[in-house]
Specification:
138 residues; mainly alpha; 0% strand
Length: 138
């Protein structure tokens, strides 16, 4: 029995779980929730070590890789399932907005870095640009 046949048989034997998986893979909002969670892990993996400059770089790299694993555990299914509803371009643009939002909160709360008016203006322009990717096709 092939893996596909086994999956189909399993789905027939477990209709509630099958319905739940269909709901997940067709969700319009779940990919964005997962991308946001993924981005929190990514931001800590990429920038969290800046508060630990006294640690050896090899240790920081290993810790960052460990954190990044959880980023990918969320990001890969978010993009796969999200592509059932959104175009790859829409997913990427949404990801960039999520990245800027998560990083801004992280920079203010964790790194205690100030956000200036020109940062906010740049962010607003990115959000405006993203709006064009989500306009109706017609």
């Amino acid at each position: 029995m092939s893996a596909t046949e086994r999956d189909c048989l399993w789905a027939k034997q477990n209709p509630p779980m099958n319905e739940f998986m269909n709901y997940l893979t067709e969700s319009r909002w779940l990919p964005f929730v997962m991308l946001t969670c993924s981005n929190i892990f990514m931001t800590f993996a990429w920038y969290g070590h800046l508060k630990f400059k006294d640690r050896p770089i090899w240790l920081v790299i290993i810790a960052s890789w460990g954190i990044a694993f959880f980023e990918y555990v969320l990001q890969v299914p978010a993009n796969r399932w999200g592509s059932n509803v959104w175009s790859p371009v829409q997913l990427k643009i949404a990801q960039e907005i999520i990245t800027l939002t998560v990083f801004s909160v992280f920079a203010i709360l964790y790194l205690k870095a100030p956000v200036r008016w020109n940062h906010l203006a740049a962010f607003a322009l990115v959000v405006a640009a993203a709006g064009f990717a989500f306009l109706p096709k017609n």
